[in-house]
């Protein structure tokens, strides 16, 4: 009997120990009610091995108490709270941010410290950039991600290709800002979409049957005087600000003049120009066009064709040939059929006077494409076979043109309606240098920098990890988890890919601890502890009675 009572006492002791552990867990949950990204836990009890005893009915079993069976983490979604900090992030759905000790690199590029190679995982997204440019957690660990492949983005932009997601390059690494500036970019694409009033008449005098019928306006341009284009030589003009390789601004002016209506088609002449004093081109002998040539500042000339409904159906384009020699007279043989880049006619102004860059076929030329809303992958066709404007006469059939079978007309295209001439849309892709002013994150985990020049550049893509067995993760403190054999190494993905969720910027995930639930659990645990203590005091009383039997 004494052994049985002592066993009963130890059953009560096991209950005290188990409920004490549960109370510790509850207390930890309550202590972390306001901890960013904290995941609560609960204690699951299991009974101890039962003792076998004999009974009148045969063999029976008597329990020996209780012990902690498992500590189960609650990885359910915490609430999302709006923050004023751009770099505060929260994961909506599955996944963890990846962080590790940052690597140290000396000024000569040599690795000083590879850091603790252990990768930790966290749901706490209260990140910031440190003095070295690393994106870090509150404990100084570097956030991990992929570097954006800017070359692929530029190539896709130049070819008009739409990327399904932001391209990345290299392995997962520390997210660090290598530069706080956005370098200047020379303009390589100009888009000018206008409506040209079909009720207009030609401003330039054009003689029917003359060879200059389709380029009479451009012929009046004179880069040796100011203004270079007389105000009575064109019907409409519009301007676009562009940038050279150093980020200096320049103004392009596009002049338009109606030519004629013929066989149901309407023809307009255009000329793309810049300030002649800013034209950095040189002629075939190396002499600057500025001050020496009538064509100084005249970058591209050509025509546009519209049908009776006002829709643009074709165009031509001509630029100076590389054999050009400075002249004070206009020679159509100096103007060759324009080459195309990505289907659009291209010209060059060579604002910085770079050598071997004054003509579109030269090696160092910075080409700028002209987009009126029309392109052709095979370039222009020259019906005259001369390759120059010299083969053109008053017959529109002599103009260079885009082959209709490969012609591409954009949704935003120049028109010829009977309303006042106006600029519908204009744009260019160059910009001056700028300083980084802010960094933000989108739902796909792409870190984007905003610069003082108004440009935005995608910089990094955050890496997220997920695990099949979340209960196998080990808590390391500081809102960190590490992998174990039970959890496995997990899988890494960008946000909104695979099994991981999206990322919300200016947002923090709050603790998922529910106060009401924890308070109820505390009451139940307290009662359990009291009941087990009562078992001990009761057994103690019973043992006292047994001892009293001797008296």
Per DSSP E runs of 2 or more residues, the count of β-strands stands at 41
Give the overall silhouette: rod-shaped
Largest sheet: 10 strands, antiparallel
Beta-strand percent range = 35-45%
Number of helices: 4
What tags apply to this protein structure?
551 residues, 14% helix, 41 strands, alpha+beta
Write the layout of secondary structure elements.
Blueprint: H1 2-31, E1 41-47, E2 51-55, E3 58-62, E4 66-73, E5 80-82, E6 88-92, E7 96-100, E8 104-105, E9 111-113, E10 120-122, E11 125-126, E12 128-129, E13 135-136, E14 142-148, H2 150-159, E15 168-174, E16 181-182, E17 189-195, H3 216-219, E18 236-243, E19 249-262, E20 265-274, E21 298-306, E22 312-315, E23 318-320, E24 335-337, E25 340-341, E26 344-347, E27 368-371, E28 374-376, E29 380-381, E30 401-402, E31 407-409, E32 422-428, E33 434-441, E34 446-451, E35 456-462, E36 464-466, E37 474-477, E38 480-482, E39 491-493, E40 502-505, E41 507-509, H4 515-548
Parallel strand pairs: 17-27
Antiparallel strand pairs: 1-4, 2-3, 5-41, 6-11, 6-40, 7-10, 7-14, 7-36, 8-9, 12-13, 14-15, 14-35, 16-33, 17-32, 18-19, 19-20, 20-21, 21-22, 23-24, 25-26, 26-27, 28-31, 29-30, 33-34, 34-35, 36-39, 37-38
């Amino acid at each position: 009997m004494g052994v049985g009572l002592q066993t009963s006492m130890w059953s009560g002791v096991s209950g005290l120990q188990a409920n004490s552990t549960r109370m510790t867990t509850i207390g930890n949950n309550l202590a972390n009610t306001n901890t960013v990204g904290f995941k609560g836990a609960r204690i699951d009890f299991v009974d101890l091995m039962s003792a076998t005893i004999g009974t009148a009915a045969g063999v029976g079993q008597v329990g020996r108490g209780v012990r902690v069976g498992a500590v189960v983490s609650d990885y359910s979604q915490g609430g999302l709270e709006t923050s004023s900090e751009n770099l505060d992030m929260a994961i909506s759905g599955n996944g963890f941010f990846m962080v590790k000790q940052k690597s140290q690199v000396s000024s000569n590029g040599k690795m000083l410290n590879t850091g603790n190679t252990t990768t930790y995982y966290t749901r706490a997204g209260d990140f910031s950039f440190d003095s070295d440019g690393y994106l870090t957690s509150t404990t100084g660990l570097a956030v991990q991600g992929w570097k954006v492949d800017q070359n692929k983005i530029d190539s896709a932009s130049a070819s008009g290709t739409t990327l399904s997601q932001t391209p990345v390059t290299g392995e997962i690494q520390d997210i660090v800002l290598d530069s706080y500036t956005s370098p200047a970019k020379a303009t390589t694409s100009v888009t000018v979409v206008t409506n040209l009033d079909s009720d207009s008449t030609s401003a330039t005098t054009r003689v029917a049957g003359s060879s200059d019928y389709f380029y009479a306006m451009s012929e009046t341009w004179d880069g040796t005087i100011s203004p270079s284009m007389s105000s009575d030589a064109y019907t409409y003009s519009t301007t676009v600000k562009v940038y050279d390789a150093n980020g200096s601004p320049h103004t392009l002016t596009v002049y338009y003049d109606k030519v004629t209506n013929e066989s149901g088609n309407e023809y307009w002449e255009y000329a793309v120009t810049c300030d002649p004093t800013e034209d950095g081109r040189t002629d075939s002998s190396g002499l600057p066009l500025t001050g020496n040539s009538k064509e100084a500042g005249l970058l591209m000339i050509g025509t546009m064709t519209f049908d009776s409904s006002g829709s643009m159906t074709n165009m031509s384009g001509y630029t100076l040939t590389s054999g050009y020699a400075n002249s004070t007279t206009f020679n159509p043989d100096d103007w060759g059929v324009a080459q195309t880049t990505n289907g659009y006619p291209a010209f060059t102004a060579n604002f910085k006077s770079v050598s071997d860059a004054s003509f579109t076929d030269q090696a160092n030329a910075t080409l700028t494409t002209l987009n009126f809303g029309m392109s052709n992958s095979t370039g222009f066709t020259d019906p005259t076979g001369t390759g120059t404007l010299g083969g053109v006469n008053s017959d529109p059939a002599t103009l260079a043109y885009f082959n209709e079978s490969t012609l591409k007309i954009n949704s935003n295209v120049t028109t010829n309606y009977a309303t006042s001439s106006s600029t519908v849309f204009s744009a260019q892709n160059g910009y001056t240098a700028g300083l980084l002013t802010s960094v933000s994150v989108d739902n796909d985990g792409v870190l984007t920098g905003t610069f003082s020049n108004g440009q935005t550049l995608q910089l990094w893509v955050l890496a997220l990890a997920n695990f099949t067995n979340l209960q196998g993760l080990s808590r390391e403190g500081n809102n960190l988890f590490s992998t174990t054999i039970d959890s496995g190494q997990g899988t890494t993905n960008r946000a909104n890919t695979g099994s991981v969720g999206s990322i919300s910027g200016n947002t923090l995930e709050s603790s998922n601890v529910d106060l009401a639930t924890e308070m109820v659990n505390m009451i139940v645990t307290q009662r359990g502890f009291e009941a087990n203590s009562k078992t001990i005091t009761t057994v103690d009383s019973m043992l006292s009675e047994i001892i009293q039997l001797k008296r």
